[in-house]
Amino acid sequence: MSGNSRREFIKHVSTGVATAAALSSGVSAQSANSKIRVGVIGCGGRGCDVAEKMAMIKDVSITHVCDANKIRLAEAAKQFQVGENHAVADMRRILDDGSIDAVIVATPDHWHTPASILACDAGKHVYVEKPCSHNVREGRLLIESARRNQRVVQHGTQVRSTSMMQEAVDMLHDGVIGDVFVAKAWNIQRRRSIGKQSPTQVPAELNYDLWTGPVPMLPFQVNRVTDGWHWWHHFGTGDMGNDGIHDLEYARWGLGVDTHPSLITAAGGKYFFDDDQEFPDTQFVTFEFTPESGERRTLIYEQRLWSTNYPHNTDSGAEFYGTKGQMYLSRRGKIQLLGERNRLINVNIDRREQDTDAHVADFIGSIRGNRRPNADIELGHMTATLCHLGNLATRLQHSLDFDPNTEEITNSDEAAALVTREYRDHWARPAVQ
Q1: What is the pLDDT of residues 388-430, one digit of tens each?
Q2: For FRET with 178, which of 47, 106, 214, 302 sits at 20 to 30 Å CA-CA?
């Protein structure tokens, strides 16, 4: 796909702002040869993986690491050869350091937006892991902070930076299967149970107050913190926000919708696991889009976290249904095209790419070039919102009417209250008004 066609496509889907557009005429681009110093906030497996790939880029160095767990912090400091004074538990130490140009935010989900807003306000560019927010309102606040501070904010949906995905979406928008009215994404895998546990003493290596941050404190419980936080409403966004968000990202992208859905319906619940997790292990969600152009589109999401059988022998993927054919697409590196009446078209790509490598390179390139990144925060917010609305519709077991312009749920006071959340009085409490 040519650079020009890619820019034209992204201009169409990113609320009118081209990815290559300058952040602001008032902010000068950093020299292509300038050194970029990066701090890592959240030193678990994903945070260190992103940091390791970023450190491989010329003139980029990981200079600071931050984690509320002393053991993880020490391991990260050793991995990136960071001195003791630059390995900290409190992210304010990183944000106050004027020598740092950018941060990676790879904390649990409830910290993503507050940490990113604080970083933007401190003048740092941000690579924030998916989902960029814990609720709908937070995503909009983060966009406002990024624009106000004229910072690059890259969302960790790395499919946006793979050439295969870009080529596939370009083909869809060039009409290879006609007008695409419906897309279906799936996330199907066998997850582990988190078991049933009771509150216990906080381990000595964890600063639980810093780990909890801006949200109300809960009694410490191992499966609510150590690797289990994904599955609790208080801290996580379920597997829809954890893994399914990648498939929703390219399904929405390929479908070509540049607005939020107006109607969300869902079915599902906990069918398989008998444990403490609060999110469903089974979800079927339908998002209906009615853009101002009047061209209606539908996106379907299927999630089964107890299954080892899936379409096209791929645990995650998307299908696009057009008036002249069908496309199957997977972030595992596959494209297959069918024409009318299931005629196989001679396009069958099987190419797995190093998507995170490309994504962090785009982030650094965006900083140096003073441009919007491939997964700009506005795009990230669009897909994260799908996760939040899909989870709410499943949790409350009724459909949701959503106003794409005001980003409000209009048919349920209970659901409308969950578009934001309760915060404790804390130095990282976001302004929600």
Answers
A1: 999 999 999 999 999 999 999 999 999 999 999 999 999 999 9
A2: 302
Q: How many helices (H) and strands (E) does the chain have?
A: 14, 16
Closest CA to 390 of 268, 307, 230: 268
Domain extent for 395: 162-194+223-354+384-417
Please tell me the distance from the alpha carbon of residue 430 to that of residue 85, in angstroms, as a whole number. 28
Query: What amino acid is encoded at 65 in this protein?
Result: V
Smallest Cα–Cα separation from 97: which of 82, 111, 112?
A: 82
Q: How confident is the model at residue 297, as a pLDDT?
A: 98
Same domain for 175 and 93, yes or no, is no
* Residue 123 neighbours by CB under 8 Å, 6+ apart: 98, 149, 151
- In tens, the pLDDT along 84-107 reads 999 999 999 999 999 999 999 999
The three-state DSSP-derived secondary structure of 186-210 is EEECECCCCCCCCCCCCCCCECHHH
Q: What per-residue confidence (pLDDT) applies to 24?
A: 56
Question: What SS3 state is found at 308?
Answer: coil
Helices in 64-212 by DSSP H: which ranges? 70-79, 92-95, 109-121, 136-149, 163-173, 208-212
Q: Residue 160 carries which DSSP code?
A: G
Record the tokens describing residue 368, joined without a space: 């140096």
Would the CA dihedral through 158, 9, 303, 116 be positive or negative?
A: positive
Cis peptide preceding 131, ω within 30 of 0: yes
Q: What is the CATH number of the domain that holds 146?
A: 3.40.50.720
Span 243-257, average pLDDT: 98
Q: 3-state class of 420 per DSSP?
A: coil
Q: Is residue 337 part of a domain?
A: yes
Which domain CATH number covers 345?
3.30.360.10
With respect to residue 52, please indicate whether it lies within any of the assigned structural domains. yes
